[in-house]
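Q: Structure tokens for this one, please.
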Amino acid sequence: MDGIPPKESARKPKHRFKNAIAAGRRHTVGLKSDGTVIAIGDNNVGQCDVSDWCDIVAVAAGNVHMATNTGNSHTIGLKSDGTVVAVGWNKHGQCDVNEWRGIVAVTAGWRRSIGLKSDGTVVAVGSNTFGECNVGAWRDILAVAADDWHTVGLKSDGTVMGVGINRYGQCNVSSWRDIVAVAAGYIHTIGLKSDGSVMTAGLNKYNQCDVNGWCDIVAIAAGSYHTIGLKSDGTVVAVGNNRYGQCNVSGWRDIVAVAAGCTHTIGLKSDGTVLAIGSNEYGQCDVSGWCGIQIHSD
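A: Here is the predicted structure, written as tokens:
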């Protein structure tokens, strides 16, 4: 989700903070202060081929749950002029974003890309098997989130919309109010309220929705089966599947943004360095040498 610097209120910020880090199925992406991008991890379909990107202000990475047929991914970059670039898996046209204009935020699901326009409307390309790209009628949107098979939109009035597969109730968000940020996991949805508490909908098989006691949260992220919350003091909380240690974040400090992939978690520190924990099978957590990663704002 969009990072919000700690020690600020969870209330809607005056400026839109853009994603400086992103975590995919098995790769990690970082946006540097000079507008270039770095990526590490699995590059089987070119999802890490971002070395020639410039003037980028936000990044997103396609994530998907772990399965034998879900290894491919893609990466999206939002440029300062409102155009979008994409690399990686494009079997379903999810990288066909060259004609997009006036974009202010991007997110990536499995097999699709979502763009938020400056007028509050939303565009989408890629697979629409379950209606997850049916966002053409959305208006007054402030933020978007996507994962495997559903897409979520936060409206300017603090309400939330959801489209796509709803087998486990992950799109049952129409009653939510006072929301300032949203995140989407494999089959669960997270909403951050203006008071710093968190709401959830969807499958809770791995306790990924057990956030009732959370408070003072300023940013959220959702992996396939885990949920991450950034607190106002720069610490991080996590619930859900911890098979790969992706929830072992209790020792993190001075964090200003978080991202969650399928089985790994990323944290951006205030000094521009990055922490990572969880599955590192493809080197997606090898970020210890990264520096100069920075959140950009409108």
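A few notes: Residues 225 and 241 are 6 Å apart (CA to CA). The first strand starts at residue 21 and ends at 23.
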